[in-house]
């Protein structure tokens, strides 16, 4: 298989699979508490994957490698996905995916403040401003009188932003940490994220046993899809991309995923968007594209 073919397949998987996980979580949380879904998804998937690595002869990582993978796992699989699962209870899956698409903004700011100290380019700054304007318009923050009629719930939206900050920090911190081999690192990250989700679920959610008893075939299929397709296939494709494709090309998933999530939410869940949401979505996606171009310009200069 040629490099170009692998690239197309990997991009297609990340585009479609990660865009579809929002719908998968939407189905799962109809019966299960949101953070329990994250727990089942990552703890089950991580344990199975870790056992597989032992069977393949990887051995037990040292303590430094485990600590590094655990930190990244809590930031990404734990905080990042718990907030997304929670927000899906209050708004359409496409809008949640759109909020997550602001990730490049957090990456740019955190990278400048805490890591490379690289100043954003002019294009990147314009993208930040455009994206911020789109979010203010989407959340309707300029008109408090519309608080009860907002399509986007403010508190869940803020949680998604917090989760995106955690995801951005974990992604930026990862190269500075001692980590196991990629597949085993993925397994430990998933286990750590699953244990974090379990802790949050036990603290803030209830009726766990009742929810498990009420699981339908649809619920089981959604959870299995999130584990096998979302975590194994999607994440493996993403790992291949970040190691073999230009960063600016890999980053395009940030503005393709919301489109996929919008489309699937409309087909399978009948999720309809208001004019305000559609306009805001276009503004935010333009901002994200500009930020991605800005990061490419910075990489070229360096």
UniProtKB/TrEMBL annotation:
Membrane topology according to the record? Multi-pass membrane protein
Residue ranges occupied by any EamA domain in the UniProt entry: 8-138, 157-292
The UniProt entry's GO CC annotations, sorted and at most eight, read: membrane
Q: Please give the superkingdom of this protein's source.
A: Bacteria
Q: Where in the cell is it found?
A: Membrane
Entry keyword set: Membrane, Transmembrane, Transmembrane helix
Q: Which residues cross the membrane?
A: 7-29, 35-56, 68-88, 94-115, 122-140, 152-170, 182-203, 223-242, 249-268, 274-293
What is the similarity comment for this entry?
Belongs to the EamA transporter family.
Q: What is this protein called?
A: EamA family transporter
* Originating species: Emticicia agri
């Amino acid at each position: 298989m040629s490099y170009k073919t692998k690239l197309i397949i990997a991009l297609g998987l990340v585009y479609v699979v990660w865009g579809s996980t929002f719908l998968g979580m939407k189905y799962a949380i109809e019966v299960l508490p949101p953070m329990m879904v994250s727990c089942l998804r990552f703890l089950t998937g991580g344990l199975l994957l870790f056992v597989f690595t032992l069977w393949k002869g990887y051995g037990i990582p040292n303590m430094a490698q485990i600590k590094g993978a655990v930190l990244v796992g809590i930031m990404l699989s734990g905080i990042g996905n718990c907030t997304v699962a929670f927000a899906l209870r209050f708004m359409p899956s496409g809008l949640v995916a759109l909020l997550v698409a602001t990730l490049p903004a957090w990456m740019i700011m955190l990278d400048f403040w805490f890591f490379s100290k690289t100043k954003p380019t002019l294009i990147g700054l314009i993208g930040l401003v455009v994206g911020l304007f789109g979010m203010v318009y989407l959340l309707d923050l300029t008109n408090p009188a519309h608080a009860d009629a907002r399509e986007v719930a403010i508190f869940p939206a803020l949680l998604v932003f917090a989760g995106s900050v955690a995801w951005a920090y974990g992604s930026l911190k990862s190269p500075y940490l001692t980590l196991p081999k990629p597949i085993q690192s993925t397994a430990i990250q998933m286990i750590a994220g699953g244990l974090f989700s379990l802790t949050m679920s036990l603290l803030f959610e209830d009726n766990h046993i009742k929810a498990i008893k009420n699981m339908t075939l649809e619920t089981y299929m959604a959870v299995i899809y999130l584990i096998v397709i979302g975590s194994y296939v999607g994440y493996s494709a993403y790992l291949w991309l970040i190691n073999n494709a230009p960063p600016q090309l890999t980053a395009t998933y940030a503005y393709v995923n919301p489109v996929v999530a919008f489309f699937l939410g409309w087909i399978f869940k009948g999720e309809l968007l208001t004019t305000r949401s559609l306009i805001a979505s276009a503004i935010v996606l333009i901002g994200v594209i500009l930020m991605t171009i800005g990061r490419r310009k910075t990489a070229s200069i360096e």
